[in-house]
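Task: sequence in, structure out. Protein: DNA polymerase IV.
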Amino acid sequence: MSAPARKILHVDMDAFYASVEQRDDPSLRGRPVVVAWRGARSVVCAASYEARKFGVRSAMPAVRAERLCPQAVFVPPDFVRYKAVSRQVREIFARHTELIEPLSLDEAYLDVTSTRSGLATATETAEAIRTAIREETHLTASAGVAPNKFVAKIASDWRKPDGLFVVRPHQVEAFLAPLPVGRLPGVGKVSEQRLAELGIATVADLRTLDVAVLEQHFGRWGRRLHELSFGIDDNPVQPERPTLQISSEDTFERDLPIEDLEPHIERLASKTWEGYQRELARDDSRIARTVVLKLKTSDFRILTRSLTPAEPPSSLHELTRIACDLRARVALPTRTKYRLVGVGLSGFADRDEADAQIDLFEGQQA
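Result:
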């Protein structure tokens, strides 16, 4: 007998950092709020819905956000407060299930196939969670309910802000069919363009391609694309595990020589550093010690170069400098061109352990 369909929630706090700022400072309510440090190298951590009307989005350079919305109020992020509210929300989740997979401070997957609270349906559970969040934190959350993780995540965005959308098992294929293929997990701009060249724009279009054709163009990923188009995803909700690596990567529209990669490395280092700051806000007991540069050549050869400095990188500037310097360790002909670059932080260790290693290193140098 087959196992019962899972009941998965994806709960996403609405404009979380900006909403906390507006909650705590009444003068910010109804105004376009951008949570970011000012400066050429800063990126937007969050934008209120009032700011989003002007096209401001998270991970956007702060200078661009200021151009799009000159009247925006810029507020420096306060991760200590955001982390405290995130803990409140996590405690609400835990009243219903122990199967919680946090994605960041403001969103998580929950498996509510069986619940501690004994509520009859996943929909009732989602409503109870959203009500508790509203009453106890004075913030709002949106939720998606579905038989698997990726459909639940898409559904949570359906009625934002402060919304709930339910996709029952028999509705999954119809729900996905009209969506652009870019809504499927793992389909970025490059994959979307390659699918467009095959005449594929929507999930329904994708279903018309034979698995063999997809594998011919995308390798093993082609079979996964076929499964996703039909809403097949057996990945379980995985309770929180220690972070092993934080990274960002990008595939170029055209292949580039190594000397032209610096602006791309700077941009990706900024995204990685932002992700690292979010991780530290969530758990500051572990720090990253190793900088990783990933490259893929035009003939799909993958290279990684890494460095573990005596002291862990403590700023975006240090991360960027080390990542750029790692290009010197690539011993390939200068004519080699690259189609992808990535910047990562790894080698996570307990802060006390890392400090002890630094003391040992300094003692050896004395």
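Residues 1-169 form a domain with the Alpha-Beta Plaits fold (CATH 3.30.70.270).
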